[in-house]
Amino acid sequence: MIIQGFDPISDPDARILILGSMPGIASLEANQYYGHPRNAFWRIMGDVFGAGLERPYAERTAILKDQGVAVWDVLKLCHREGSLDSNIKDEVPNDFAGFFVQHPRIERVVLNGGKAAKSFEKYVRPLVPSLTVTTAPSTSPAFAAMRYEAKLDLWRTAIISADQGQGR
User: Fold this and answer.
1) pLDDT of 32-90, one tens digit each?
2) How many domains does the chain fold into?
3) From 71's CA, which of 81, 100, 115, 160 has a CA 20 to 30 Å away?
């Protein structure tokens, strides 16, 4: 099945770009980033920024934009059966050359898991070789090997180190 991702959640003044690989089935059906109820992304964003699941999706995305955070996926299109990243084939990346022109203040990228990291290195890193990049543990419910508290600590560190020196 051909899967197409979402437009980015972004503001031109964004400083941090969080990248996943490609939305899963639950996210596509909900028409929301990280729409699976057991995905830890919005719980983590709630603990870090107050953009948790108790808020409507539009409010969560507005909070992230207000905090200088953009969210997107490395891939625009792919073939995939189910939601597992390991099933992704025939990848087509998003237009990062255009994205970085429209978002010139991006200073750090936080990658959501291993597949996002692998695809980023293949398609995006050559465009921005000096950009600071951190791979955080996947928020996917398929990655249950790490406790939530440990994921939160690593995500918080990745995001806070992105804010060092910015007066936040």
Assistant:
1) 999 999 999 999 999 999 999 999 999 999 999 999 999 999 999 998 888 777 778 89
2) 1
3) 81
Q: Determine which one of 39, 87, 94, 112 is catalytic.
A: 39
Is pTM beyond 0.85 here? yes
- Alpha carbon 71 to its chain's center: 5
Decide if 102 is inside a domain. yes
Specify which residues 78 forms β-bridges with: 3
pLDDT in tens, 118-154: 999 999 999 999 899 999 999 988 777 889 999 999 9
Helix 41-49 vs helix 148-163: angle between axes, to the nearest 10 degrees? 50
CATH number at residue 146: 3.40.470.10
- Asked if residue 43 is part of any domain, the answer here is yes
HEC string of 81-111 equals: CCCCHHHCEEEEECCHHHHHHHCCCCCEEEE
Domain-embedded: residue 168: no
Instruction: Write out the residue range of the structural domain in which residue 82 sits.
Output: 2-163
